[in-house]
Amino acid sequence: MDMMLKSLVRRAMIQALQRSEKISKLYRLASPCNLCPRKCGAMRDKGEVGYCRAPMTVKISSTGPHPGEEPPISGKNGSGTIFFTYCTMSCKFCQNYPISQLHNGYEVTVEKLAEIMLEQQARGCHNVNLVTPTIMLHKLQKQLRLLKRVDFLFQLFIIVLVLNQLKC
Fold this sequence. Notes:
Blueprint: H1 3-17, H2 21-30, E1 58-66, H3 71-74, E2 79-84, H4 97-100, E3 106-108, H5 110-122, E4 127-131, H6 137-148, E5 155-157, H7 160-165
Parallel strand pairs: 2-4, 4-5
Antiparallel strand pairs: 1-2, 1-3
Helix pairs in contact: 2-6, 5-6
């Protein structure tokens, strides 16, 4: 399938998925915000930010193979990490402070995030490792459904407990 056709297929899937009940539920949890245990109630869809300072958009700081994870996770080719900005923890000695608290990074669309995940697979990464995705779950749910339909064959590590808590 050529890139143009893949792009059109992705776009059509995303438009169809936007009407999904589970996605709607996550969007309702994102504003007023109840995605993390803090349940700050920020009206993110109206530009208000809560404790984590996250807007409704997705912002990432970096992506790529990460050989430094535990061997069962990183394998020979590395774990395909996607570092999301913002965090609900504010740990005093956070090793990712510029990402989690200063929000260094760049905004990506849902389509671009899907492309990044597929690029990780093409690089030979053994999985996609989403770092601090909790406050982006309303956007990630689209990715999980989209990638299920686009021949996404390798493992996706995500905070399953959060998804179970949200009953998604």
